[in-house]
Amino acid sequence: MQIPIEALNLLMLNVGYAEHNADWNWKNVFSPFTRIFYVTEGRAYLHMHNTSCELRPNHLYIIPAYTMHDYECNEWFSHYYLHVYEAFKAETNAFEFYDFPTEVDGSEVDRLLLDMMCQLHPEAQLPASDPTAYDNQSSFSGFVKRYNDMPLFDKMRLRGATLTLFSRFLEHATPRMWTTNERMQKVLSYINNHICNDIDIDELAEVACVTKPYLIRLFKQDLGSSPLKYINQKKVERAQLLLITEEMPVKDIAYELGFNDYSYFIRMFKKTTGKTPQMYRNTMR
Questions:
Q1: What are phi and psi of 120, to 5 degrees?
Q2: From CA 184, how far away is CA 189, in angstroms rounded?
Q3: CB-facing half-sphere around the CA of 152: CA atoms within 13 A
Q4: Cα 285 vs. chain centroid, distance in angstroms?
Q5: Low-confidence residues of the chain: pLDDT under 70
Q6: pLDDT of residue 90
Q7: Per-residue buried b or exposed e for 31-68, using 16+ beta carbons within 10 Å of the residue's own CB
Q8: Beta strand pairing call for 103-105 and 69-72
Q9: Terminal alpha carbon distance of the chain
Q10: Cβ–Cβ < 8 Å for 192, 186
Q11: What is the pLDDT of residue 2?
């Protein structure tokens, strides 16, 4: 299944070039945006999913949003970085369609693209390398506003460069098994189009034209999850983004996402993230 290009609504938050001397060591980094690195010199390590990846010169790396990870750097290390996030779109995002490689070979074109973005937008560099200095509500909101206030030609140029870099990973990505199942395609499209509604499993069974028990088996077989768990995960991810980009009260966010029972939303959010929505917002301030 092909992803429509308009579904890749990637917006730039930050771009810059950083040099480190054994001082790029951060743990439990978890953000609502995707990171892309291009390493120019030295060596460092990325730890995520219980695996480690050596960050090598002339290679590109990607870390999807909402992925817990650590950085380890014991020597000289320099790299370009690009932070992007997906605006509120109904379509399923690319990471749901494909398994992406963490590393791909870089090229001079990739480096030049990132260098151009840095030169055109020096104001978009990070204030510090410590994620806690920028991975918070006030900074994130400021980065989004800066992008939204850009003239259209700037956004077009940044979107083109970002999609070019993103395509380097998509070229080597592997379609997930469920993408060949038309029923699952319809169901996931329906979920993403109605993520702000109270989605009923019976509705999904009707969309797929199967019985409810069979739909549940399809979900567990193709996604390793029940339909309800998948829906709640997507709602929590949307809630996390709203909590750091909007000033809406937590109760309004719950209602915005189709939760009629506010207490259930609190319990479900805490079960998924380990924090209540307000605790999560406070840690991101």
A1: -75, -25
A2: 8
A3: 0
A4: 19
A5: 1-8, 87-93, 177-180, 284-285
A6: 46
A7: bbbbbbbbbbebebbbebeeeebebeeebbbbbbbbbe
A8: unpaired
A9: 39
A10: no
A11: 52
> Are 214 and 250 within 8 A, CB to CB?
no
Superfamily of domain 177-283, CATH level 4: Homeodomain-like (1.10.10.60)
**Domain spans of the chain, in order of start:** 5-175, 177-283
Q: Can you give the pLDDT at residue 202? A: 92
What is d(CA 225, CA 258) in angstroms, rounded to the nearest whole number? 21
pLDDT digits (tens, 9 = 90+) for 54-103: 999 999 999 998 899 999 999 999 999 999 987 655 445 677 778 899 99
Q: Reduced to 3 states, what is the DSSP secondary structure of residue 200?
A: coil
CATH of span 5-175: 2.60.120.10
**Which candidate, 54, 51, 46, 55, places its Cα nearest to that of 25?**
46
Distance between CA atoms of residues 46 and 61, nearest Å:
10
Residues facing residue 55 across a β-bridge: 44
- Given this model, what pLDDT does residue 8 score? 61
Q: CA–CA separation, 102 vs 64, rounded Å?
A: 9
- Neighbouring C-alpha atoms within 13 Å toward the C-beta of 59: 15
Please give the structure tokens belonging to residue 260: 């009629």
Going by C-alpha positions, the residue among 113, 120, 112 that lies closest to residue 151 is: 120
